[in-house]
Design brief:
mainly alpha; about 90 residues
Length: about 90
């Protein structure tokens, strides 16, 4: 199932990880995007494994579609993402 990998990482003992940065398929579009985006940090010596434990991404739209169009309402999962992003860091909670 497509959601199993992300859900396993949420329950990870060391905290959630960015599953794209540790994706086993090195040609995966998500891994390629994150690698490009974090290139400056990897050039400074940070590994993908390290960054995967330190960077959390909240997606407003959890999938990518060429036929995307706005929906007329906010989904409950989107409301949760907005709340989570606005809340204080877990370190300060």
């Amino acid at each position: 199932m497509a959601t199993e990998a992300p859900l396993q990482h949420i329950a990870h003992v060391g905290g959630p990880t960015n599953h794209f940065l540790t994706h086993p398929d090195k040609d995966h579009p998500g891994l390629r995007w994150w690698s490009r985006t974090l290139n400056g940090l990897t050039k400074q010596g940070h590994s993908h494994d390290e960054l995967a434990r330190q960077i959390l991404a909240m997606q407003f739209h959890g999938y990518h579609s060429q036929s995307w169009r706005p929906i007329p309402h906010t989904l409950p999962s989107q409301s949760f993402a907005f709340y989570w992003c606005a809340a204080p860091s877990p370190v300060t909670r």
